[in-house]
Structures are given as C-alpha cells and as structure tokens.
Amino acid sequence: MTEFTPLTATIGGVLIGLSAGLLWLLNGRTAGISGIFGGLVPIRSREAGWRLAFLIALPVGALLGAWLGPKLFAEITSGTPSLGLAPIAAVGAGLLVGVGTRLGGGCTSGHGICGLARFSGRSLVAVVTFMLVAMATVFVVRHVLS
Prior knowledge:
This protein has 146 residues and is mainly alpha-helical. It has helices at residues 6-27, 33-38, 45-72, 86-104, 108-117, 121-144. The protein has two domains: 1-79, no CATH class; 84-146. It is globular, with a radius of gyration of 17 Å. The mean pLDDT is 83.
C-alpha cells in the first residue's frame, strides 16, 4: 500500500483507541497484545475469559474488515494476495516479536497506545526504538536487498 487514506486511518485509530480505553476503564488492564496473550499461560481462571475474548476478537475484526471494508470504502481494494513464502516469514517474524516483547517489557500496542497515553518515559523510549528499527528494516529491504 503506497497511498495514505485519512478516512479509514482515522476510523481505525478511533476504534483502536476506543477498545484500549474501554479495556482500561472496564477492566483496569492495558491493551498490550503480548501481555494479554502471555497472561493466558498459566491459565488464570478469573482472567482467561476476557483475555480469550480479546484475542479471538482480533482476527474476527480483521476478517470483518476484509469483508466489509471494500464495500464501505472506495480506497480499500478487495482481492486475495499471493502468499508465497509469507507463512514461513510470518512464523520467523512472530518468534522475533516474542523475543522482542520480552526484552522490551511489552509490545507496540502496549507501549505505543497505552504507554504513551499515560506519558510513560519507558514507553516513549520503546516506541522511538520500534520506529527507528522499522525504518531501518524498510530501508534495508527496499534498497540493500533488492
């Protein structure tokens, strides 16, 4: 995707902020995906329900967006992308993300959405680090490896 679409970006940002805010207000929990997932093991009976509901809602929301998005917004195109080596890369990327969330004490959603909203200095350092590494990765993939 090479074009910025302000309407869908704004709607997505509002929905993410709303869900993070509701989780904080109603449950007193930070909407950090790695922490929510990590809290399932060992399974704590009192907390397993909301954690599972949150994690199940993530792919369900993505599927709904893929299905409804092209019908509601002209800038969203439909179609199935070619996977190629994507599943293998996704497994490797997932493992690296898991290691990174342990080292960084949280993930991009926890630090970037909730931590910055609480003016956490630690989250600011984490987000700046995430962004710099992401920019360097894009540069290397686009200009060095291609």
